[in-house]
Amino acid sequence: MQLAIDTSTETATIALVDDGRLVAELTWCCGEFHTVELLPNLSHLLKLSAISIEKVSSVVVATGPGSFNGLRVG
Questions:
Q1: pTM of the model
Q2: Which segments within the chain are labelled E, that is strand?
C-alpha cells in the first residue's frame, strides 16, 4: 500500500493506493496551513478507509513545482 501526498498548492490531496488501485482519497483547501492539517487529515482518511498506518509500505510525494513550504511539509 502506498500513501501519496500532494501539498504543492493551496489544495492538498492524500491518497491510498494498493497495487495501482485507488483505495481512498481526500482533497481539501488548506491555504497556507499544510503543517497543521496534513496529519489530522491523514488520520481521518485512514479511519474512513479502515486501514492502519502499518499497512503503508511506501510514501510518494509531489516534488513540485509549487510552494516551498507546502512541498517541505509533504
A1: 0.85
A2: 2-6, 11-18, 21-29, 58-61
